[in-house]
Amino acid sequence: MGWLRKLIGVLLILTAIAVSLSREPDRPVESLIARWGLPPSTFVDLDGQLVHLRDEGPRGDPVPIVLLHGTSASLHTWDGWAGELSKTRRVVRLDLPGFGLTGPRADARYGLDDDVAFVLNVLDHLKLQRVVLAGNSLGGRIAWRTATVASQRVDRLVLVDAAGLPDSIRSVPLGWRLARVPVLGALMEWLLPRAAVVQGLVAVYGDPQRIDDALVDRYYDLTLRDGNRTALRQRLQQYVPAEHADAIAGIRQPTLILWGGRDSVIDPAAAAGFERLIPGSQRVMFDRLGHVPHEEDPAATVVPVQAFLAASR
Description:
Elements: H1 2-22, H2 29-36, E1 41-46, E2 49-56, E3 65-68, H3 79-85, E4 91-94, H4 112-125, E5 131-136, H5 138-149, E6 154-160, H6 174-179, H7 182-188, H8 194-204, H9 213-223, H10 228-238, E7 255-260, H11 269-277, E8 282-286, H12 293-296, H13 298-310
Parallel strand pairs: 3-4, 3-5, 5-6, 6-7, 7-8
Antiparallel strand pairs: 1-2, 2-4
């Protein structure tokens, strides 16, 4: 038994060394702005909550487009869409609480309706009475929920691999699973191996060859923003699967559903599920793309969005 105790001791020492070598401290938001928050980025204060957003395109647009990103992403995920859509439409995108440069909520509340209230607060601040609301994954869940609780504010919906249907989750990236485990979740607030970020991107891309160093840098840097790792753990612990899913059938706004056929996070069959529940909705599948099709191939995925928006005018 003496050799076993020695072995355990050696393993503990090696683990402590590995942890110390892998430790990545939080980064102050000021240190990240020079790369990720330059113009057209702006920052607004909403009741003490710093909000990072970009507001582009013609100000005379009567129904602007608002883009909501998914878990662990940021407003940069929409760069391709925003570049095209803002040529003719006003496009607003923002970092949700606990992600990107916006940072964590002071009250640590990350429930679905807390996110909806946050989005509506942003719309009020920008004096946007009625918008086209588009969202990916978590952002899609927030978008359809907003359309059900504040229908007068949402003119049209674009759901991109949206979360929220019962039994639609296929798999959860390793980092998200670890964040939900009490001890490991706390440990993840100290560690962020770059390999874990790469693994997370491989899980959400249909073609891993599209992942480059610049993309990894962005996700890595913004995850390290002060408080974001703690916020992710809190958000995942507060997550209620299929919350308010019964309200989806009450959506009456024209709705476009986009989905990656290689989505390994949310079952692509969920696209047909949304289509069945939302009267008159349109569904477009991208067979070779994954969970973030708008980011993976913005040029291809924005085309049906442009057609959908043109039909509304």
